[in-house]
Amino acid sequence: MLRDKRTLALMFLAPLLIMTLMYFLFQNNTTQVASLGVHHVDQSVVNVIDTKNVTIHHYDSSQARKMIKQHDLDGYLTQKNGQLTITYSNSNPTNTSLIKASLQSGLVKLKMKTLVTVTKKQRAALESQQAALKKLTAAQTQATVTKLKTAIAQAQARGDQATAEKLQKQLKQATATTSSSTQSAKATSYTTKSHYIYGSSDSTFFENFLPAFLGFFVFFFVFLISGVSLLNERTTGTLSRLLATPIRRSEIIMGYLIGYGGFAIIQTVLTVVFTITVFKIHLVGSIWLVFLTNLLLALVALTLGIFISTFANSEFEMIQFIPLIVVPQIFFAGLVPVDGMASWLQAIAHIMPLYYGANALTTVVTKGAGLGDIGVNLLILVGFMVVLTMLNIVGMKRYRKV
Fold it and tell me: Rounded distance, CA 316 to CA 324, Å?
């Protein structure tokens, strides 16, 4: 072990490199922001939901689905009288949760603010009514009292004691305190109604990340098996005997691609079918595009595994490359939003094959994207495969001894 400098370096330095990468990824201070389109919504509602986590965009159309797809929005809010209708894209559950939280807390704040305003108005109106009532009551009471006193005096002058006592009772009632009732104002209230374009309210974060995991496991196992396989050909001497024949290096590489590509197809079919049937993933797009993307990922992993195996002298050393080559790619596959990363981390993400594969898979599964929408990602995967194939053909030259 002490003489194997590579093993020591990978054993002690690889965990530090992975931990450092995770530190920069998860310590990023960039705030996750969701985009929300609004149409004919009261400005008071817009003000309370416009936070640092939600960006508001105003549009003139009430067609929520069309505007979400056209402008790549996370949600669209419309209003008709007091009815608020929110349509979620739901392609990213994180952004959906941000909009939900902002809308709910905003409506609560708005209701509390309205209640405070209404209470102040009620208090002012009540005080005004009480003052006017006092003046009116005082005037009416004074006139009544004067009239009753005159009638009592006249009854006493006539000697009519019964009438005088009856008028005395009425005088007491006239001078008693009167009460009044006021009508309360009613606070403005909004009701909400929700719709989902992709998935439903029961959609989970696992469903959102499942397409990325699907691509990762296909990539990982093909990379491992292909790399170890070619390494065995080298260590057992089979590769040397093949290179001693008139067989071209390109034919050997293409043979590996065709042979293991067939196994990659079977693995892709089994993995995709298992994911859809067992985990009940909501597949919005075409299943054939899912197969195609995973197949291209498998071929890239195949060529990458063959290329990396040239730097290893044993299966143990081949496995040591996994933390450096494969594990970092999962962090750039959508688990952490790449758009919110630092610029230098985004540059690293764009040289990772799994970034393009996971992006294509997620877009197809959650948004129903077509071939034209993911064409660039697929072409980049093909480019990775072609470049790695050429490097493998050139690298095979070092093993030809005759």
Answer: 14
Please say whether the beta carbons of 290 and 272 come within 8 A. Answer: yes
Q: Answer for the pair 77, 116: CB distance below 8 angstroms, yes or no.
A: no
Sign of CA dihedral 320, 322, 327, 329: positive
Q: pLDDT tens digits for 164-222?
A: 677 666 666 655 544 333 444 444 567 888 877 766 666 666 667 778 888 888 888 88
Element spanning 3, H or E: none
Cβ partners under 8 Å of residue 146, min gap 6: none
Q: Tokens representing 120?
A: 């102040």
Taking the C-alpha atoms of residue 268 and residue 330, their distance in angstroms, rounded to an integer, is 18
With vertex at residue 142, the alpha carbon angle to CA 139 and CA 147, rounded to the nearest 5 degrees, is: 130
Name 235's Cβ contacts closer than 8 Å, sequence gap at least 6. Answer: 313, 314
Q: How far apart are the first and last CA of the chain?
A: 34
The Cα–Cα gap between 2 and 8 comes to 7
Residues 299-350: tens digit of each pLDDT = 999 899 888 888 877 777 787 788 788 888 888 887 777 777 778 888 888 8
Q: List the 75-80 sheet strands across, edge first.
A: 54-58, 34-39, 75-80, 83-88, 191-196
For residue 19, CA distances in Å to 29, 168, 209, 220, 338 come to: 18, 96, 22, 20, 18
Give SS3 for 35.
strand
In angstroms, what is the C-alpha Rg of the chain? 39
